[in-house]
Amino acid sequence: MKRLLVPAGNFFFRWREILFPAVQVLLVFGFAPRPWPRAGGPDDGDALGLLLLVLGQGLRVAVIGFAYIKRGGQNRRIHADDLVTDGLFAHCRNPLYVGNVLILAGLFLVHGSPWVVGLGIGFFVFAYLAITLAEEAFLAGRFGAAYEDYLRRVPRFLPDLRGLGRTFEGLSFDWAKVVRKEYGSTFAWVTMLVLIVTLESRLQLEPEAFKARVVLLAGVWGLALLGYATARALKKRGALGGHARRAAS
What we know:
The chain has 8 helices and no strands. By secondary structure, it is mainly α. The chain is globular and about 65 Å long.
C-alpha cells in the first residue's frame, strides 16, 4: 500500500495548488448546500464546521508562530533543508496538514451536503496521507537515522500533548511571521466560507432576508479583503520581515 501511496503523494504535492482548490470548487458548486439537521432547529453542521475552522486555523497559527519548517518543495517537488523537530513538531510530525484537514472538514460541514462531506473529507484525508508518506520517504533518505529516531518518538497525526508546556517555555511567538505566511490561505478559506453561506442562504431565506444576509456577508468578505490587501502591502514593503523559512501549505 505504501508503495502505491508514495507516487500518489508526489503527484498531489506537485499539483496541490491547482488540484486542491479545483476539488473544493467542484464539490461546493456541484451539490446544493443542506442544513444539518434539515427539519427545524439550529444548523448543527454550521456550528461544528465553524468550530473545526477555528481549531484548524488556530493550530496552523501556533505551528507557524512558534516553529517553522521548510518543506514547501522546490520546483513543485518535495524538499527540505533541515529536519525540524521543535515547537509543535515535537508533538506531531504533521500539524500543518492536520490543521488543513480540520479547515477543509469545517467548510464541508458548513456546506452540509452528505456528498460534499463524504467525498470532500475522504479525498483530502487520502491526499494528505499520501503526501505525508511521500515526504516520509524523502526525509528518511535525506536524514537517515535522525529521522528514523524522530519517527519512533513523535506520532504522525494525533498529537502527543505530554510536555507541551515545557516545549513552549523556550519559544517566542512571532505574529509578523504568522501574518506574512497565513494571510493568503486564510483569505482563501474565508472567501470559500462566504460563498458557501451565500449559497445556503439563497436556498433557505426569503428574498428580503436573503438580501440582508448578502449585505452582511459582503461586509465580512470586504473586511477579509482589506486584511489581505494590507498584509500583502506590508509584506511587499518588508514590514513583516522576510527571512522566515517556508512551510508546506
